[in-house]
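User: Okay, second chain of the day. Same drill as before: sequence in, C-alpha cells out.
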Amino acid sequence: MIDYASVCILEPRLNNAHKLKVLMVQNKSSRKPSRSDNRKPEILDTAAKLFSERGYHAVSMRDIAKTTGMLPGSLYYHFSSKDNLLYSVYERGVSVIAAQVDAAVLCQDDPWDKLEAACGTHLEELLGKNAYAKVVTRILPQDVESIQPELSKLRGSYEDRFKVLIADLGLDEGVDQMYMRLLLLGALNSTLSWYHRGAGSPSAIAEELIKIVGQPIKR
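Assistant: Same drill. C-alpha cells below.
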C-alpha cells in the first residue's frame, strides 16, 4: 500500500485531485487478488481436463463446479457460460502450444529441421499431460457452432506457424502447400487415437513424418 505522503513526495507537481487519483490507482494495482479470483486457474485446469477426457458436450457446468468443489452459481461469477469457459481453455491451449513450438523452432537453422522441431514439440504437448493441448485438438470449432468463428480464429492463429514453416522449405511449385500442411497436422493430431509407448518418442515420430513428406514417394 502507498500513502498520500508518499505520493506527494513522488509526484510533487500534481494538484491534490490528481494526487488522490494516483493514490487510488497505485493501491488498486497493489491489492492482492481475492480468493475467488485465485480460483480461476483452477477452474480452467478442471475444465480442460474434463473437456479433454469426455468432450465438450458431455461435460456440464455443474460437472466442472462439482469437480472444482464449487457451487454451480459461483462458477458463473468467473465465466458467463460454458461456451465462454471453452473459449478461455482454447485460448490458453493455443498460447501454451504456440510458445513451446516457437521456442523449439528458434533453436534450428535448416528449414526442414525447423519443421521437424515444430512437429516434435506439437506431439510432446499433445501426447504428454497437457490437457489444454488435447482440447484444442479433440474439440473442433465446428463441434461448437455458437462460437465456431472464434475457435477457428484461435486454431488458425496457431496453424499459421506451419504455413510459414512449409513456405520456407522452397518446395516445387507443383506441391500444394495447403494440402501438405493439412496432411501433416492431420497425421500429428491423429496420434491421440493410436499412440502407445512402444510407438516411439514424439521426436522420433516427427522425424519419420518429415522423412515421408520430404522425399519423393513415386519412382
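Residues 169 and 181 are 12 Å apart (CA to CA).

User: Thanks, on to the next one.
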